Amino acid sequence: MTGLTHFVVVGGSYAGINSARAIFAEAEAAKTPIKLTLVSASTHSYYNIATPRYLVEPDLLNEKITFDVEKSLRKHAGINEFEFIYATVKEADFDLKTVKYSKSNDDVTDLLSYDYLVLASGCRYSNKAFKLNDSHENTLREVLRLSKSIKSATNVAVIGGGATGVETAGEIASAYPDKKIHLYCGSGILQHLGERVSREAKSQLEELNVNIIPNIYYTGIETLSDGKQKVIFNNDTSKIFDEVITATANIPNTEFIPDRFKNAKGYVKTNEFLALEKYENVLAIGDVADKSSGNAVDILYYHLPVLKKYIQKNVFKKNVIITPVKSHAPIEIVPISRKGGVGVAWGWSLPNFVIWLLRSRNYGIPAAGKFL
Ligand SMILES: Cc1cc2nc3c(=O)[nH]c(=O)nc-3n(C[C@H](O)[C@H](O)[C@H](O)COP(=O)(O)OP(=O)(O)OC[C@H]3O[C@@H](n4cnc5c(N)ncnc54)[C@H](O)[C@@H]3O)c2cc1C
């Protein structure tokens, strides 16, 4: 025990890494070293945002799209003590101020005490290629498997009308115009971005010959003996595809958090300062928080400023006012092929040229290291 204020951060992706950087920087500014331990179920972070492009251009997996968490954070530690633990947190006790973690799949756990806890364990996804689940190698293996399967397929079903489903259908249809791509979009395409954007996305997908099927929901997927996949729908029909990609559900990684701190969907309930009610030394940052709209933009522009002020005030006793986390109109860019896509920022829809410049041309891959 060093006697330094101890921060424990759970999660080694956009939220965990940027929270750790912010905490280091605030301690440096206050000339008061702290100890920070980051526990993550993956040694590397993953630039998942470009996954739809990796699926059709798997050579991109050779680019810098994963980052060694310990190495990259060590550079930012400065005067502070830093430890990285590659492990899965199994239990958190906010009264005792401890977390229990396990380095392997057995039941053996170690205990870590904290003064401040940052929950940044994010969400996993319905398809393993799109997010870190455990090791980054497993995620990349799934991307590669899927890309090979798409290449040899004649017909592919993408299930999900949100950004991931739309981007994935657009990328495959554009890279492989001879394949038949079916997009099952439930209640509609990009509904959360408004009618105008939804219409524009639909028209761009139709230009790429994507077959858009609304108002049918899948209830199950069976893998057949020849490797094809049978999708069963809620209207008692089924259809067979060479490959099926589900892009439907974010599942919060909160199994280690007691139920009373979670909402009905499993996200961590926080107050307007991203702290837990009555446990103000515990914060939830990123996708895991109920105040998140599920994108990395939220973390960088809305969560981190709150975290920084919180540390200045509560840890370093500066006389600052913490501004509550703001709800805001969506900021989202959705590439639909290399040529462009759709997007909105603070209620304004963005022209195709801006979408191309900011995202479609290279999916932001060259700048990935800035955030991870
Ligand atoms: C295909 C796709 C495209 C996207 N495009 C965009 C985009 O263009 N712009 C945008 O802003 N957002 C985008 N997003 C959303 C963005 O990916 C998420 O907002 C972001 O990943 C959230 O980061 P996070 O750190 O909160 O959680 P995650 O990225 O989910 O990371 C969670 C971390 O916690 C670790 N972890 C989980 N459980 C435990 C545990 N029990 N113990 C220890 N460690 C644990 C994991 O290993 C991981 O390191 C996209 C998402 C997808 C799927």
From TrEMBL:
Residues 6-292 form the FAD/NAD(P)-binding domain. Transmembrane segments: none annotated. Keywords: FAD, Flavoprotein, Oxidoreductase. It holds the Pfam family Pyr_redox_2. One of its GO terms (molecular function) is electron-transferring-flavoprotein dehydrogenase activity. GO terms for cellular component: cytoplasm. Coiled coil: none annotated. Belongs to the FAD-dependent oxidoreductase family. This is FAD/NAD(P)-binding domain-containing protein. It comes from Hyphopichia burtonii NRRL Y-1933.
